Protein backbone atom coordinates (compact mmCIF):
# COMPACT_ATOMS: atom_id res chain seq x y z
CA UNK A 1 0.00 0.00 0.00
CA UNK A 2 1.26 3.48 -0.82
CA UNK A 3 1.73 5.53 2.35
CA UNK A 4 2.21 8.91 0.69
CA UNK A 5 -1.03 10.55 1.82
CA UNK A 6 -2.81 13.45 0.22
CA UNK A 7 -5.82 14.81 2.10
CA UNK A 8 -8.37 16.96 0.32
CA UNK A 9 -10.96 18.09 2.79
CA UNK A 10 -11.69 14.85 4.66
CA UNK A 11 -10.70 12.50 1.84
CA UNK A 12 -7.45 10.63 1.29
CA UNK A 13 -6.14 9.13 -1.91
CA UNK A 14 -3.25 6.81 -2.74
CA UNK A 15 -0.07 7.84 -4.51
CA UNK A 16 -1.25 6.36 -7.79
CA UNK A 17 -4.04 8.94 -8.05
CA UNK A 18 -2.17 12.03 -6.89
CA UNK A 19 -2.19 14.91 -9.33
CA UNK A 20 1.09 16.77 -9.74
CA UNK A 21 -0.67 19.95 -8.71
CA UNK A 22 -2.80 18.95 -5.75
CA UNK A 23 -4.21 21.19 -3.04
CA UNK A 24 -3.21 21.28 0.63
CA UNK A 25 -3.67 19.85 3.15
CA UNK A 26 -1.33 16.93 2.53
CA UNK A 27 1.33 14.92 4.32
CA UNK A 28 4.17 12.57 3.43
CA UNK A 29 5.65 9.89 5.70
CA UNK A 30 7.95 8.31 3.04
CA UNK A 31 6.94 4.72 3.86
CA UNK A 32 6.54 4.24 0.11
CA UNK A 33 8.95 5.37 -2.59
CA UNK A 34 8.51 9.16 -2.82
CA UNK A 35 9.37 9.11 -6.52
CA UNK A 36 6.04 7.39 -7.11
CA UNK A 37 4.35 10.38 -5.48
CA UNK A 38 6.16 12.93 -7.71
CA UNK A 39 8.99 13.87 -5.37
CA UNK A 40 12.17 14.63 -7.30
CA UNK A 41 15.88 15.19 -6.69
CA UNK A 42 17.93 18.04 -8.16
CA UNK A 43 20.27 17.21 -9.78
CA UNK A 44 18.67 13.93 -10.87
CA UNK A 45 22.08 12.28 -11.19
CA UNK A 46 22.45 12.41 -7.39
CA UNK A 47 19.53 10.06 -6.80
CA UNK A 48 20.66 6.85 -5.14
CA UNK A 49 24.05 8.25 -4.14
CA UNK A 50 23.96 11.65 -2.42
CA UNK A 51 20.14 11.62 -2.18
CA UNK A 52 18.49 8.41 -1.00
CA UNK A 53 15.22 6.93 0.22
CA UNK A 54 14.75 4.14 2.72
CA UNK A 55 11.50 2.97 4.26
CA UNK A 56 10.17 5.98 6.18
CA UNK A 57 13.00 8.42 5.46
CA UNK A 58 14.58 10.53 2.74
CA UNK A 59 18.17 11.72 3.08
CA UNK A 60 20.40 14.18 1.25
CA UNK A 61 24.10 14.88 1.45
CA UNK A 62 23.82 18.07 -0.60
CA UNK A 63 21.32 17.65 -3.45
CA UNK A 64 17.82 19.05 -3.17
CA UNK A 65 14.72 16.97 -2.47
CA UNK A 66 11.70 18.63 -4.09
CA UNK A 67 8.07 17.97 -3.27
CA UNK A 68 5.33 17.64 -5.88
CA UNK A 69 3.93 20.98 -6.97
CA UNK A 70 0.64 21.95 -5.36
CA UNK A 71 -1.96 24.62 -5.91
CA UNK A 72 -1.88 27.62 -3.56
CA UNK A 73 -4.21 30.50 -2.92
CA UNK A 74 -2.44 33.83 -3.51
CA UNK A 75 -1.67 35.67 -0.24
CA UNK A 76 -2.87 32.69 1.82
CA UNK A 77 -0.81 31.61 4.86
CA UNK A 78 0.21 27.94 5.19
CA UNK A 79 1.52 25.88 8.10
CA UNK A 80 4.44 23.54 7.38
CA UNK A 81 5.46 20.88 9.92
CA UNK A 82 8.73 19.02 9.30
CA UNK A 83 10.14 16.06 11.22
CA UNK A 84 13.86 16.08 10.55
CA UNK A 85 17.33 15.52 11.87
CA UNK A 86 20.74 16.60 10.69
CA UNK A 87 24.00 18.31 11.59
CA UNK A 88 24.75 21.17 10.91
CA UNK A 89 21.62 23.30 10.20
CA UNK A 90 19.88 22.85 6.85
CA UNK A 91 17.46 24.74 4.62
CA UNK A 92 13.93 24.50 3.31
CA UNK A 93 12.13 26.73 0.83
CA UNK A 94 8.67 27.36 -0.56
CA UNK A 95 9.22 28.21 -4.23
CA UNK A 96 6.34 29.70 -6.21
CA UNK A 97 5.23 29.54 -9.84
CA UNK A 98 2.78 31.68 -11.78
CA UNK A 99 -0.18 30.45 -13.83
CA UNK A 100 2.11 29.85 -16.81
CA UNK A 101 4.43 27.67 -14.73
CA UNK A 102 7.25 30.22 -14.57
CA UNK A 103 9.19 30.29 -11.30
CA UNK A 104 8.72 33.55 -9.41
CA UNK A 105 11.73 35.40 -8.05
CA UNK A 106 10.17 35.97 -4.65
CA UNK A 107 10.28 32.79 -2.56
CA UNK A 108 10.30 31.87 1.12
CA UNK A 109 13.58 30.39 2.38
CA UNK A 110 14.21 29.43 5.99
CA UNK A 111 16.47 27.31 8.15
CA UNK A 112 16.05 23.93 9.82
CA UNK A 113 17.79 23.82 13.17
CA UNK A 114 20.45 21.16 13.63
CA UNK A 115 19.27 18.13 15.59
CA UNK A 116 20.73 14.70 16.35
CA UNK A 117 17.42 13.06 17.31
CA UNK A 118 14.30 13.37 15.19
CA UNK A 119 12.78 16.79 15.88
CA UNK A 120 9.48 18.36 14.84
CA UNK A 121 9.82 21.92 13.57
CA UNK A 122 6.94 24.22 12.60
CA UNK A 123 6.87 27.10 10.11
CA UNK A 124 4.34 29.41 8.50
CA UNK A 125 4.67 31.03 5.10
CA UNK A 126 2.50 33.21 2.88
CA UNK A 127 1.93 32.44 -0.80
CA UNK A 128 3.06 35.19 -3.16
CA UNK A 129 0.40 37.57 -4.44
CA UNK A 130 0.75 36.20 -7.99
CA UNK A 131 1.43 32.55 -7.18
CA UNK A 132 -0.58 29.72 -8.71
CA UNK A 133 1.45 26.74 -7.51
CA UNK A 134 4.24 26.00 -5.05
CA UNK A 135 6.95 23.43 -4.45
CA UNK A 136 8.88 22.70 -1.26
CA UNK A 137 12.67 22.28 -1.37
CA UNK A 138 14.87 20.66 1.30
CA UNK A 139 18.66 20.57 1.35
CA UNK A 140 21.70 21.08 3.62
CA UNK A 141 23.67 24.28 3.57
CA UNK A 142 26.05 24.42 0.63
CA UNK A 143 28.99 24.14 3.03
CA UNK A 144 27.44 21.19 4.86
CA UNK A 145 29.50 18.01 5.20
CA UNK A 146 26.68 15.91 6.67
CA UNK A 147 23.13 14.84 5.94
CA UNK A 148 19.62 16.20 6.21
CA UNK A 149 17.02 13.51 6.91
CA UNK A 150 13.23 13.90 6.69
CA UNK A 151 10.67 11.41 8.00
CA UNK A 152 7.46 13.44 7.71
CA UNK A 153 6.24 16.64 6.04
CA UNK A 154 2.77 18.09 6.65
CA UNK A 155 1.17 21.10 4.98
CA UNK A 156 -2.18 22.80 5.52
CA UNK A 157 -3.75 26.25 5.07
CA UNK A 158 -3.55 28.49 8.12
CA UNK A 159 -5.29 31.60 9.33
CA UNK A 160 -3.52 34.91 9.73
CA UNK A 161 -4.16 34.67 13.47
CA UNK A 162 -2.39 31.29 13.60
CA UNK A 163 0.60 32.77 11.81
CA UNK A 164 0.74 35.63 14.32
CA UNK A 165 0.60 33.23 17.29
CA UNK A 166 3.41 31.15 15.76
CA UNK A 167 5.52 34.32 15.39
CA UNK A 168 4.85 35.04 19.07
CA UNK A 169 6.13 31.59 20.02
CA UNK A 170 9.33 32.17 18.04
CA UNK A 171 9.89 35.52 19.74
CA UNK A 172 9.16 34.10 23.20
CA UNK A 173 12.11 31.73 22.85
CA UNK A 174 14.56 34.52 22.03
CA UNK A 175 16.37 37.04 24.24
CA UNK A 176 14.07 40.06 24.79
CA UNK A 177 14.02 42.67 22.02
CA UNK A 178 13.59 46.23 23.28
CA UNK A 179 13.94 49.53 21.44
CA UNK A 180 12.53 53.03 21.54
CA UNK A 181 11.35 55.01 18.54
CA UNK A 182 10.49 58.71 18.18
CA UNK A 183 6.80 59.59 18.49
CA UNK A 184 6.79 61.44 15.14
CA UNK A 185 8.25 58.52 13.19
CA UNK A 186 5.30 58.20 10.75
CA UNK A 187 4.53 61.86 10.16
CA UNK A 188 5.39 61.55 6.45
CA UNK A 189 3.05 58.57 6.03
CA UNK A 190 -0.36 60.07 6.84
CA UNK A 191 -2.35 58.05 4.28
CA UNK A 192 -0.69 54.82 5.35
CA UNK A 193 -1.56 55.42 8.98
CA UNK A 194 -5.10 56.43 8.13
CA UNK A 195 -5.55 53.20 6.14
CA UNK A 196 -4.34 51.12 9.08
CA UNK A 197 -6.80 52.81 11.41
CA UNK A 198 -9.80 52.90 9.07
CA UNK A 199 -9.50 49.49 7.43
CA UNK A 200 -9.04 50.84 3.92
CA UNK A 201 -6.95 48.24 2.01
CA UNK A 202 -3.23 49.01 2.23
CA UNK A 203 -1.04 47.64 -0.55
CA UNK A 204 2.67 47.65 0.35
CA UNK A 205 5.33 47.06 -2.30
CA UNK A 206 8.68 46.08 -0.81
CA UNK A 207 11.47 46.81 -3.30
CA UNK A 208 14.99 45.46 -3.07
CA UNK A 209 16.99 42.28 -2.67
CA UNK A 210 16.86 39.00 -0.75
CA UNK A 211 17.04 40.86 2.57
CA UNK A 212 13.89 42.76 1.63
CA UNK A 213 12.34 39.45 0.55
CA UNK A 214 13.11 38.00 3.99
CA UNK A 215 11.61 41.07 5.64
CA UNK A 216 8.43 40.64 3.62
CA UNK A 217 8.34 36.99 4.78
CA UNK A 218 8.56 37.87 8.48
CA UNK A 219 4.77 37.88 9.14
CA UNK A 220 4.94 41.55 10.10
CA UNK A 221 1.65 42.14 8.30
CA UNK A 222 -0.38 39.80 10.52
CA UNK A 223 1.36 41.07 13.65
CA UNK A 224 0.57 44.67 12.75
CA UNK A 225 -3.06 43.83 12.00
CA UNK A 226 -3.50 42.87 15.65
CA UNK A 227 -2.71 46.46 16.63
CA UNK A 228 -5.14 47.79 14.03
CA UNK A 229 -8.14 45.40 14.08
CA UNK A 230 -9.66 46.93 10.94
CA UNK A 231 -6.44 46.86 8.92
CA UNK A 232 -6.19 44.90 5.65
CA UNK A 233 -2.55 44.73 4.58
CA UNK A 234 -1.36 43.27 1.28
CA UNK A 235 2.38 42.80 0.81
CA UNK A 236 4.00 42.50 -2.61
CA UNK A 237 7.69 41.55 -2.55
CA UNK A 238 9.18 43.07 -5.71
CA UNK A 239 12.74 41.81 -5.48
CA UNK A 240 15.80 40.39 -7.24
CA UNK A 241 18.63 38.71 -5.38
CA UNK A 242 21.65 40.95 -4.97
CA UNK A 243 19.86 43.87 -6.63
CA UNK A 244 19.54 47.47 -5.50
CA UNK A 245 18.26 50.77 -6.78
CA UNK A 246 21.22 51.25 -9.11
CA UNK A 247 19.44 48.56 -11.19
CA UNK A 248 15.84 49.59 -10.58
CA UNK A 249 16.55 53.21 -11.57
CA UNK A 250 17.59 52.23 -15.10
CA UNK A 251 15.45 51.70 -18.24
CA UNK A 252 12.17 52.62 -16.53
CA UNK A 253 12.29 49.47 -14.42
CA UNK A 254 10.24 51.30 -11.81
CA UNK A 255 7.26 50.59 -14.08
CA UNK A 256 7.78 46.83 -13.84
CA UNK A 257 8.88 46.63 -10.24
CA UNK A 258 6.77 49.35 -8.60
CA UNK A 259 4.27 51.33 -10.66
CA UNK A 260 2.32 48.43 -12.17
CA UNK A 261 1.56 47.13 -8.68
CA UNK A 262 -0.09 50.46 -7.72
CA UNK A 263 1.20 50.56 -4.14
CA UNK A 264 -0.18 52.77 -1.42
CA UNK A 265 3.16 52.46 0.33
CA UNK A 266 6.56 51.79 -1.28
CA UNK A 267 9.23 50.38 1.06
CA UNK A 268 12.83 50.49 -0.20
CA UNK A 269 15.60 48.64 1.60
CA UNK A 270 18.20 45.89 1.50
CA UNK A 271 21.98 45.57 1.46
CA UNK A 272 22.50 45.68 -2.32
CA UNK A 273 22.16 49.40 -3.04
CA UNK A 274 25.92 49.78 -3.35
CA UNK A 275 25.94 52.66 -0.82
CA UNK A 276 24.40 54.68 -3.65
CA UNK A 277 22.03 57.14 -2.02
CA UNK A 278 21.42 58.94 -5.30
CA UNK A 279 20.17 55.75 -6.95
CA UNK A 280 17.53 55.43 -4.23
CA UNK A 281 16.62 59.09 -4.69
CA UNK A 282 16.23 58.51 -8.43
CA UNK A 283 13.83 55.60 -7.89
CA UNK A 284 11.75 57.69 -5.49
CA UNK A 285 11.53 60.59 -7.92
CA UNK A 286 10.63 58.36 -10.88
CA UNK A 287 7.88 56.65 -8.91
CA UNK A 288 6.47 59.96 -7.74
CA UNK A 289 6.22 61.23 -11.28
CA UNK A 290 3.84 58.36 -12.09
CA UNK A 291 1.91 57.52 -8.90
CA UNK A 292 1.26 59.12 -5.53
CA UNK A 293 2.54 56.32 -3.28
CA UNK A 294 4.00 57.20 0.09
CA UNK A 295 7.59 56.05 0.61
CA UNK A 296 9.51 54.49 3.48
CA UNK A 297 13.29 53.98 3.19
CA UNK A 298 14.98 51.36 5.41
CA UNK A 299 18.63 51.17 6.38
CA UNK A 300 20.38 47.82 5.94
CA UNK A 301 19.52 45.70 9.00
CA UNK A 302 21.86 42.75 8.41
CA UNK A 303 24.00 41.21 5.77
CA UNK A 304 27.58 41.07 4.65
CA UNK A 305 28.79 43.37 7.44
CA UNK A 306 28.07 40.47 9.79
CA UNK A 307 28.19 40.26 13.57
CA UNK A 308 28.77 43.72 15.08
CA UNK A 309 30.73 42.13 17.92
CA UNK A 310 33.45 41.28 15.39
CA UNK A 311 33.77 44.77 13.91
CA UNK A 312 36.59 46.08 16.16
CA UNK A 313 38.73 43.07 15.27
CA UNK A 314 38.05 43.56 11.57
CA UNK A 315 39.07 47.19 11.70
CA UNK A 316 42.04 46.94 14.06
CA UNK A 317 43.65 43.83 12.62
CA UNK A 318 43.53 44.17 8.83
CA UNK A 319 44.86 40.65 8.31
CA UNK A 320 41.80 39.15 9.97
CA UNK A 321 39.40 40.16 7.22
CA UNK A 322 39.58 41.04 3.55
CA UNK A 323 39.97 44.62 2.42
CA UNK A 324 36.49 44.61 0.89
CA UNK A 325 34.85 43.80 4.24
CA UNK A 326 36.72 46.59 6.00
CA UNK A 327 35.83 49.06 3.27
CA UNK A 328 32.15 48.17 3.61
CA UNK A 329 32.24 48.63 7.36
CA UNK A 330 33.92 52.02 6.96
CA UNK A 331 31.23 53.08 4.47
CA UNK A 332 28.23 52.10 6.62
CA UNK A 333 28.13 55.21 8.80
CA UNK A 334 28.27 57.79 5.98
CA UNK A 335 25.79 55.76 3.93
CA UNK A 336 23.20 55.57 6.69
CA UNK A 337 23.61 59.27 7.42
CA UNK A 338 23.19 59.96 3.71
CA UNK A 339 19.95 57.94 3.64
CA UNK A 340 18.56 60.00 6.50
CA UNK A 341 19.47 63.28 4.84
CA UNK A 342 18.09 62.19 1.46
CA UNK A 343 14.81 61.08 3.04
CA UNK A 344 14.42 64.48 4.68
CA UNK A 345 15.17 66.29 1.41
CA UNK A 346 12.64 64.14 -0.51
CA UNK A 347 10.07 64.34 2.31
CA UNK A 348 9.83 60.57 2.63
CA UNK A 349 10.00 58.53 5.81
CA UNK A 350 13.21 56.87 7.02
CA UNK A 351 13.64 54.03 9.49
CA UNK A 352 17.06 53.14 10.86
CA UNK A 353 16.61 49.39 11.34
CA UNK A 354 20.37 48.85 11.32
CA UNK A 355 21.06 50.45 14.71
CA UNK A 356 18.33 48.40 16.41
CA UNK A 357 19.54 45.17 14.79
CA UNK A 358 23.21 45.80 15.60
CA UNK A 359 22.47 46.84 19.19
CA UNK A 360 20.32 43.76 19.79
CA UNK A 361 22.87 41.35 18.31
CA UNK A 362 25.72 42.97 20.25
CA UNK A 363 23.97 42.35 23.58
CA UNK A 364 21.80 39.26 22.96
CA UNK A 365 24.28 36.71 24.29
CA UNK A 366 23.59 34.33 21.41
CA UNK A 367 25.90 33.32 18.54
CA UNK A 368 25.21 35.26 15.37
CA UNK A 369 24.32 32.05 13.55
CA UNK A 370 21.38 31.60 15.96
CA UNK A 371 19.54 34.21 13.87
CA UNK A 372 20.72 33.13 10.41
CA UNK A 373 19.98 30.31 7.98
CA UNK A 374 23.25 30.96 6.10
CA UNK A 375 26.09 33.48 6.54
CA UNK A 376 23.97 36.39 5.26
CA UNK A 377 20.23 35.70 5.52
CA UNK A 378 17.86 35.51 8.48
CA UNK A 379 16.12 32.37 9.68
CA UNK A 380 12.76 32.39 11.47
CA UNK A 381 14.34 34.00 14.56
CA UNK A 382 16.19 36.69 12.64
CA UNK A 383 13.04 37.49 10.70
CA UNK A 384 11.19 38.07 13.96
CA UNK A 385 13.62 40.86 14.78
CA UNK A 386 12.83 42.39 11.39
CA UNK A 387 9.10 41.91 11.90
CA UNK A 388 8.99 43.43 15.38
CA UNK A 389 10.96 46.46 14.25
CA UNK A 390 8.42 47.18 11.50
CA UNK A 391 5.49 46.52 13.82
CA UNK A 392 6.99 48.91 16.36
CA UNK A 393 7.55 51.53 13.70
CA UNK A 394 3.89 51.49 12.59
CA UNK A 395 2.42 50.90 16.04
CA UNK A 396 0.02 53.48 17.54
CA UNK A 397 1.83 55.96 19.79
CA UNK A 398 0.30 54.42 22.94
CA UNK A 399 1.58 50.90 22.18
Topology as H/E string?
A: EEEEEEEEEEEEEEHHEHHEHHEHEHHEHH
Strand content: 25-35%
Number of helices: 11
Average pLDDT, rounded to a whole number, is 90
Gross morphology: globular
Under the CATH scheme, the architecture of the largest domain is: 3-Layer(aba) Sandwich
Topology of helices and strands:
Layout: E1 4-8, E2 11-13, E3 26-28, E4 40-42, E5 51-54, E6 57-60, E7 64-66, E8 70-71, E9 77-86, E10 90-97, E11 108-112, E12 115-126, E13 133-140, E14 148-158, H1 160-172, H2 190-198, E15 202-208, H3 210-216, H4 220-227, E16 233-239, H5 245-248, H6 253-257, E17 265-268, H7 277-290, E18 294-298, H8 311-316, H9 323-346, E19 349-351, H10 353-363, H11 380-394
Parallel strand pairs: 15-16, 15-17, 17-18, 18-19
Antiparallel strand pairs: 1-2, 1-3, 3-14, 4-7, 5-6, 6-14, 7-13, 8-13, 9-12, 9-14, 10-11, 10-13
Helix pairs in contact: 1-4, 4-11, 7-9
Descriptive notes:
By secondary structure, the chain is an alpha+beta fold. Helices cover 29% and strands 27% of the residues. It contains eleven helices and 19 strands. Strands 1, 2, 3, 5, 6, 9, 12 and 14 form an eight-stranded antiparallel sheet that branches. Strands 4, 7, 8, 10, 11 and 13 form a six-stranded antiparallel sheet that branches. Residues 1-19 have low confidence and may be disordered.
Short note summarizing the structure:
With 399 residues, this protein is an alpha+beta fold. Helices cover 29% and strands 27% of the residues. The longest helix has 24 residues.
Which features would summarize this protein structure in a list?
eight-stranded antiparallel beta sheet, 399 residues, Rossmann fold, disordered N terminus, globular, alpha+beta, Jelly Rolls, six-stranded antiparallel beta sheet, 11 helices
